[in-house]
Amino acid sequence: MSNHLFDLVRDHLPSDPAAKAFIETPEGRRYSYADLLERSGAYANALVGLGVKAGDRVAVQVDKSPEVIFLYLGAVRAGAIFLPLNTAYTGPEIEYFLSDAEPALFVCDPAKRDALSAVADKAGVAQLRTLGADGRGTIADAADAAQADFIDVAREPDDLAAILYTSGTTGRSKGAMLSHENLASNTRTLVGVWRFTADDVLIHALPVFHTHGLFVATNIVLATGGTMLFLPRLDAKQILSLMPRATAMMGVPTFYTRLLKEPGLTREATAHMRLFISGSAPLLAETHREWQARTGHAILERYGMTETNMSTSNPYEGARIAGTVGFPLPDVALRVTDPESGTPLPPGEVGMIEVKGPNVFKGYWRMPEKTASEFKADGFFITGDLGKVDAGGYVHIVGRGKDLIISGGFNVYPKEIEAEIDAMPGIVESAVIGVPHADFGEGVTAVVVPGAGAPNEAAILRHLEGRLARFKLPKRVLFAEELPRNTMGKVQKNVLRETHAQLYRG
After folding, report:
1. Taking a C-beta distance cutoff of 8 angstroms, is the pair 202, 219 a contact?
2. Per residue in 83-101, pLDDT tens?
3. Nearest to 276 by CA among 251, 293, 254, 240
4. pTM value?
5. What's the CA gap between 342 and 351, in Å, rounded?
């Protein structure tokens, strides 16, 4: 079996690499597999020419373009460690990442070069280059001037291919170290579970600084010799227009809620598609049901995280149950444990989800104590997610461990209350949080996004009475036009907690 992540590409090249499209853009640009080999080789040579050595970090904060993919593959071929950074990060945040990771090279947007140059200097980064959304910049110029032929630098399975920083909603961001085999093994597994082949055409509208868009979507296409319809961002009308040419789409829940607002979303419009996948944030059961009613397709929801890549998936064949993330992947062991004692729990009981497998990362960059605290002695990684496994073996995610509410000494799981509120007519969605409360420690509080004909606070509370134990009932129901989200669509409950921290202190 290949040790090198790039061998996934080599082992599945089309018989005629020049004839098969790897990427097609909305503007009509077409990049073949021959272009991929040449351009990634040119970037690898350019990186080596800039002094990048095996094991060096290459940090990248740029807008999405095909050139980013070739730069990523060039870094992998050169034996470097690719470090993609969210385009929303500010200068001070970038300074932290550069100081922590100490990359040999930082690539940024040309428009941000002047502002980030001082940041890179302060962090001690030796080389700064640029790459724009149009695929042009000084790193692209260096690739243009470089040779296309490149002999891939040898790597062992446990050598790092990438570092991805966690979102850092509590404490400082941590760099998750992902090896060649972490990424390659997960790709091989997902190709089999989701039945991807060279005939697949994937609609790719995800960002490429995140596990979902870069290591799940892109790597799966690379490992099958398929094609990507490469969009810069979510555009529901554009996605709908591409479906007659495509076979699969990977998205976050927002993709599906936006598409459901399009009158043209019908069974006929999606007839050529074989698979819709959702992840990175919980998909509402209502969205799942409405999508199936409109299109005839059941969305396949799966579960993963920065540190583990993908760990579970609803089945390709068999029931894709709304509100669940399916079964553990074939090479992944998953268990639910008591958060206090760490002992395994029986089916149906809520506890901490732990996973083990070749997909699980090597630890946090330069944080050995944090790494040690997150792994059990038998090798299981503590995900920080609360969940349960039902009698049928399906995994349910209840929420993050830090989102657990302890009210009056009782554990309250927000997901249970959110499911009841979200099922009410006129409710778009809800988020349940714990807010400091003098009597209860934390007061259960619901923040609701109302739709047409939404019930008021009193009506929502009446609806919940008798459906939930009294200690689970919200003390207050608040209304908001929308819920705060990060770039991958996850609700930022930490922001809600900060916003409403004084609610019960008046």
Report:
1. no
2. 999 888 888 889 999 999 9
3. 251
4. 0.87
5. 9
